[in-house]
Request: fold
Amino acid sequence: MEVVTRIAPSPTGDPHVGTVYVGLFNYALARKHGGRFIFRLEDTDRQRYQELSEQRILEMFTWLGLEPDESPVKGGPNGPYRQSERLDVYRAHVERLIAEGHAYRAFETAEELDAMRAEQRRLGRPLGYDGRGRTVPREEQERRAAAGEPHVVRLVTPDDGTTTFTDRLRGQIAFANEEIRDPVLLKSDGYPTYHLAVVVDDHLMGVTHVIRAEEWITSTPIHVLLYRALGWHLPEFVHVPLLRNPDRTKLSKRKSDTSVDSYRRQGILPEALLNYLATLGWSMPDGREFFSVDEMIAAFDLDRISTGEPIFDLKKLKFFNAKYLRELLPLEDVAARVKPLFVERGFELGDDPDYVLDVVDVLRPRAETLVELADQAGYFFTEEFPYDEGARKQLAAGQTHLQAVERELSMLEFFDYDGVDDMLREYVQDQAVPMGKVMMPLRAALTGTTSAPGVVDLIVILGKRRALARIGRALTFIDAGLPDDDPQKALEEARRQEEAAKRGKPVAKAKGHG
RNA sequence: GGCCCCUUCGACUAGCGGUCAGGUCACCACCCUUUCAAGGUGGCGGCACGGGUUCGAAUCCCGUAGGGGUCACCA
Reply:
């Protein structure tokens, strides 16, 4: 039998990591068995419906590479795939359930139900619909409905006995039927509830495995009763663990960042997100921690899903992301993905494609996300970067070395890594000074910061001309007295003074050397 | 509160009667080193508790505790 799975999100807001998580397992099982993975939109709540949500969720799956075989956009043999477009289907099944005595029309108002619950609470009795509408004669139900009286349709549930089903991961689960209280199937607005819609659609769409979060366990007996009332075979139920906030409550927007779009904006890679999510509750038989979706599919086995309750840990997600950024993805790939962020920041990329590659190569071990990488890259793409506080200190202390290195560098014959490296080492040795005394001021001059890639790498990547220019700029800056404000302004001021001096006019000195 | 689910290092997990209880993240130390990272090596740290079953239990059973979910005309 063909394996058919589905993801059935509600269009109520930002694409949620929980949707990816459950979607991943559904996708993996379907692909593993050459089956189909269906995307169905559960848009039966008109209150919480959000216009753009469907599109964003669909785009998220595309971004992740978890393409559904059937969806509202793609279509397929089981459409429509929006529940709001299937109202007649649900209505037909409800009619049948009523006709066969499995359901009835109930006319209690919201106030009436509230009062009922209040009374139950007062008496300390279990909460839930007490079945009072069952006693209304069928003819009266139909008459009132025909007269346009608002009502819902409820499922008739047994008063005693138990309803049992098998969860693939947890074994047999039994519920006393008295716990199940004639749930609403069709709302008074004519829309189905989740319970009705999910059962009807899963059956009609041929879903064989219902893989969903464990929060649904308690409503599964309702579904089982419905399957029976409709005379349908049960699918396999697989309740996967619920993702948690750090305090172990159900992952929520209030306590965690649950938006996939947000992670995407932060420069999280889809590969990393999927890989990390996969390790939450699932493991490779050989213990590998890093694997692609395809590798997961190849090794996939529902029985390897654990039942623990994993905390969604941003730190570990970042770790996975960093791993992909610096090691698992080819350099060209990473470069292609950061480039748009460079452009966004107004960086002049130039026309040498290797330059960007070199920059990314040297920066990626230092970044955990694409955004972090881009944020660090500024000085590679402008000659007008600022000097931070640490850099200014280094410049102040390193003037003589900067002048010397500027001279040495300009005379350097073999301008490659070894050439520059040899030159600097010889200089340090000749001067008999600690390396840092030379390297740190150089780094400051080259980048405006004190934490950056190796000086030799920087010089080689920037090229002789720009390296020399930057050292020269730093020296001018030092001459200007290392003001705290904008270096560009300071440098212009310095130049003005220089010209004035040439013309022999006395000028006031801005500030003495620190 | 009723019902249901869950329980191995701080976090994610491997384990499915016999293991020195393994790995990863985080944390700490050391190494490498011109800074920051990355990388390397090592360390800290765990079977919730109590009963059984068994020659032998993290593994099986029962109970307790703790955590979570759910009790809507939301999904």
